[in-house]
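QA checklist item 7 of 12: single-chain prediction sanity check.
[x] sequence parsed
[x] length recorded as 122
[x] structure emitted
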Amino acid sequence: MTRILVIDDSDVIRRLLGEYLSELGYQVDFAVDGQDGIDKALAEDYQLVFSDIHMPKKNGYEVYTAVSAEKPDLPFIMTDSLPDQLAEMAKNSGANCCLRKPFDLAEVREKVEDLLSSIETP
């Protein structure tokens, strides 16, 4: 089963993405801040990571940088209410995309399916 890690300090966002992605058939795990996200992403085998940009302990750019150094092929979808310089830095460093909150769930599904199909098909 495809595993997705959702890293966000907002319980509402974690629940929303968790319920939606689970309905789509994915196994979803959660991290409550950037450091928790780094620890989980490096310790477990995920096929995709959602990471908020603005979080306590480590921001999303720091999460992406730390995780991609160890797992460079792990796709990242960055999320933010108001994409700013951190979101741009993550995107420029190789994060796959940045979705603006509130989410359009159809766009979430499309991005997830596109990214997962690109890693499944060489």
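[x] summary fact logged: The chain has one domain: 3-120.
[ ] second reviewer sign-off
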